């Protein structure tokens, strides 16, 4: 399979994003959250991560609302994506919603789960 110019551009973005993510994650592990806020307890840091993820979930709600509003006010899209081909606007909003869902569903695994595992390890070692 030949890779198109567009696919090469996407691949470069993926590699750059993965590299930046790796550097930030390793930096966060090496520095540790206490370097940013030494007075914060493990529970306070976990609560902050949950609040941050709740803010991220807000964008998912906004994406759902935008698509729902468009479908409600556009007669050719009122039946939903599974029952019609959808207008160009509906397709763009659906794609945005799908991307947002993918991003928000991975956020807790990246931010809350490691803190919860670290917190439970600290609590069992007390």
Question: How are the SSEs placed, and which strands pair?
Answer:
Layout: H1 5-31, H2 33-36, H3 42-73, H4 88-124
If you had to describe this structure to a student in words, what would you say it looks like?
The protein is mainly alpha-helical. It has two domains: 1-31; 38-124. It has four helices and no strands. It has helices spanning 5-31, 33-36, 42-73, 88-124. Helix 3 (42-73) packs antiparallel against helix 4 (88-124). It is flat. The N and C termini lie far apart (56 Å).
- Mean of the pLDDT scores? 79
- Largest beta-sheet characterization: none
- Our measurement of the CA-to-CA distance between the termini, rounded to an integer number of angstroms, reads 56 Å
Number of helices: 4
Taken in chain order, the helices and strands follow as HHHH
Helix proportion: over 70%
**Low-confidence parts lasting 5 or more residues at pLDDT below 50?**
none
Q: Name the structural class.
A: mainly alpha
Work out the strand percent: under 5%
Q: How big is the Rg?
A: 20 Å
How many structural domains? 2
Number of strands: 0
Shape: flat
Describe this protein with a few key phrases.
mainly alpha, 4 helices, 2 domains, 126 residues
Compact summary:
The protein is mostly helical and 126 residues long. It has 2 domains: 31 residues; 87 residues.
